[in-house]
Amino acid sequence: MTELILLAVFAALAWLWWDSMQAREAAVGAARAACESEGLQFLDDTVGIASIRPARNADGRLLLQRAYDFEFSDTGDNRIRGSVVTLGQRVILLRLLPRPPAEVIPLH
């Protein structure tokens, strides 16, 4: 009986690892494509997990929703944070928020 429980736990952990790698690859691809289409530099060529939680898709199926952070640059000498959210292995949200231009304050 103990062997069966250990085998089930091992199988669940293996599935979680595999599913996480697939979702991460989707997030990296989406971030890279978004940066390329906007003329931005995708820094470090990776994303980092920010959160993971259960969520339901449009069909009511329970999946894991993961949020990833990444950094990009618009000038080459700065780092701006972006984010990608996946539901299962599908990207559902991608945020690129470059810094607004510096406000000019008149001195007179």
Percentage of residues in helical conformation: 25-40%
How many strands appear in the DSSP assignment?
Answer: 4
Gap between N and C termini, in Å? 82 Å
Mean pLDDT: 91
In N-to-C order, the SSE pattern is HEEEE
Number of domains: 1
Low-pLDDT parts are none
Instruction: Report the radius of gyration as a whole number of Å.
Output: 19 Å
Shape: elongated
The number of helical elements comes to: 1
Portion of residues in beta strands equals 35-45%
Q: Main sheet? A: 4 strands, antiparallel
Strand order of the largest sheet: 1-2-3-4
Class by SSE composition:
alpha+beta
Q: What is this entry, summarized?
A:
The protein is an alpha+beta fold and 108 residues long. The chain contains 1 helix and 4 strands; from the N terminus they run αββββ.
Question: Could you please describe the fold and organization of this structure?
Answer:
- The protein has one helix at 2-38, and strands spanning 41-56, 62-73, 80-87, 90-96.
- The protein is α+β, with helices and mostly antiparallel strands and 108 residues long.
- The protein has one domain (2-96).
- Strand 1 (41-56) and strand 2 (62-73) form a beta hairpin.
- The longest helix has 37 residues, at 2-38.
- The radius of gyration is 19 Å and the shape is elongated.
- The model has no long low-confidence stretch (mean pLDDT 91).
